[in-house]
Amino acid sequence: MLSLAALLQPVVSSAAANSLSLAMFIRFIRLTSTLKPVILHRQRALKNISMAPPALPENVVTFVGCRCDLADSTVVELWAALGNWIWQYGINLLGERTEQTPDDEGLGNADHGLEDVQDNELDSLEVECAISDRILFPPTRTCTDPSCSAHGDLLRMWVAPRKVSIFTHHLGVYEGYAISLTCKGCRAVYYPNYVTRSNVRQYYSGIPAFVQVSGHKYIQRSVLEHFTMLSVLSWTSATNAAHIYHTSLSRLADDKKDCAHFRLRPEHTWDGFVILALLRDAEGRGSALEVPSNCPQSERFTEAMRARSDRIRRFGQPEFGHCCTRCVRRVDNGDGTSNYIDCVITDGLDMGRPCCGVRHCTGELRTPQSRWCAAHQGQELFCVVEGCCISHRSGHRTCALHADVEEHHLATGKAMFTLSESRSLWNDRPVTIITL
User: How far is CA 333 from CA 324, 325, 329, in A?
Assistant: First the structure.
């Protein structure tokens, strides 16, 4: 264990000790420990990543100096004195635990990164330096592709950090930065949730603490699990889930509630739900989730969802292969063949799901409101009466021969039709005459 004397000796012997308070000293260690990924990947040439870089990037010096109320020269001297210890022990120098909870993993370098949120927006210093203690960064530091010529080499931060909105469970929504790293060999780009290679987005193993649902929005995993429970237990829609978060969990001031980057849209909550489910499925199978990166977000996860549904249909139901004399009946035919009859119990909602208007067609609809699949889209030109092949009238859904059918259908939705039916039933009711 590192002794206090060994930690303070290089600080006391430097000129920075004269203007350094205990609060500044602790703040310096916390900030530099949190910013270790930024310090590491900003280096132009670093042969041994286990050793602290000899100098801090200029924006880190400025940021740490302003946050700790220290001169830039004092920050440089403190790093020269404490850099190796901070690089090796991190926040453990202060006796604080670095184990991250599932909700804190990936944000900053330790769980204290979540405790320093004072405002929803980044301040002027964070914007000027393009750095903050609210940082989402990739979990790997080197290229992980064995076929790459730079395999195992340090990834580079060639692109400035991207400003994002982070939606958390207990601290509301606030702005932060997301870092992307690039391999100089294969040009793969590593993001906080995934790596992109050859137009393929490959997610890291496990489930991240913050899931990216759009280019500039990340939702905490516990929030997505909350949305999932709302959907399962109370049938809450994606629109209502986003509205619930905005009104009860966002912790926004009244003047910021209308800011677009602080609001979740229904597609964000739905994509988060889908990504979380697919990542759980991939983790259970011991594989990595792969989706295309060069397609619209609305189509990105379609094939992955279809593949998962097919696996569940084939292998995901333990009762699928069950067969016994109580639930299956065997019928022996005269020609030596046998037929089996079993029962199926299903929900009426499944039986009534949207499907193509052509009987027994299994083609997919473009939207739940569509009537025909892509293969039968030409049926839109014909009369909707089954078996009729005549084109429908302009502005109507039936042809001239079946105009009465459409008029009757429209009339049933009007109040006068309902009133006439009720009156007819009232007049036709049986009358019992009682003689006293």
Answer: 20, 18, 13
Evaluate whether 191 touches 210 at the Cβ level (below 8 Å): no
Whether 54 and 84 have beta carbons less than 8 Å apart is answered as no
Taking only the tens place, the pLDDT of each residue in 306-315 is 999 888 888 8
Look up the pTM and report it: 0.77
CA 133/CA 116 separation, integer angstroms: 8
Q: Which of 213, 207, 35, 185 is nearest to 105 (CA)?
A: 207
Residues written for the chain: 436
Pairing of strands 135-136, 173-178: parallel
- Inter-residue long-range contacts of 263-268, CB under 8 Å, 24+ positions, other chains counted: 264/167, 264/217, 264/219, 266/237, 266/238, 266/239, 266/241, 266/242, 267/238, 267/297, 267/298, 268/213, 268/214, 268/217, 268/219, 268/242
3-state secondary structure of 416: helix
**What is the end-to-end Cα distance of the chain in Å, rounded?**
107
